[in-house]
Write a structure and sequence with these properties.
Strands 3-2-1-4-5 form a five-stranded antiparallel β-sheet. 9% of the residues are buried. By secondary structure, it is of the alpha+beta class. Strand 2 and strand 3 form a beta hairpin. It contains two helices and five strands, in the order H-H-E-E-E-E-E. It is elongated. The termini are far apart.
């Protein structure tokens, strides 16, 4: 009897966790619509990030950054985490400044982004807080 009671408890928990607007047939379609909208937003952001990266690789100023902190955001792209990096950026020998930067990092590259590591960057000449790790 315990097995069937556990299944019933799981069903009740799932029902409680499902928002009212996503219940039933209409709610299922609304949930799919919301999921597709979120996916479109994510893909649009990735396209914008790709254009920004191309622009910075071509027109960005070369600099170095020292990693002072790293955290995962909880987002993964192709099993690679998006990380938020706290960086001390130096461009052309100027005084270092702090930037918090988000970027998808390959799992195999993560050890190279530990606090204290130095990484090459390309910085937007018009906006020093806009950069990519090159």
């Amino acid at each position: 009897m315990g097995f069937f009671k556990d299944i019933k408890n799981l069903q009740e928990t799932a029902r409680e966790m499902t928002p009212p607007e996503h219940r039933g047939v209409r709610g299922g379609f609304r949930a799919m619509k919301d999921g597709v909208a979120h996916a479109n937003q994510t893909l649009g952001q990735m396209a914008n990030d790709g254009q920004k990266a191309q622009h910075l690789m071509h027109a960005g100023r070369v600099g170095t950054a020292t990693v002072s902190g790293v955290r995962q955001t909880g987002t993964f792209v192709n099993n690679n985490p998006e990380c938020e990096l706290d960086l001390q950026v130096t461009v052309d020998g100027s005084a270092p400044y702090e930037v918090t930067h988000r970027q998808i990092l390959a799992m195999v590259a993560l050890p190279g982004f530990q606090p204290g590591a130095s990484v090459p960057v390309r910085v937007d000449p018009n906006d020093p807080s806009s950069l990519i790790i090159a």
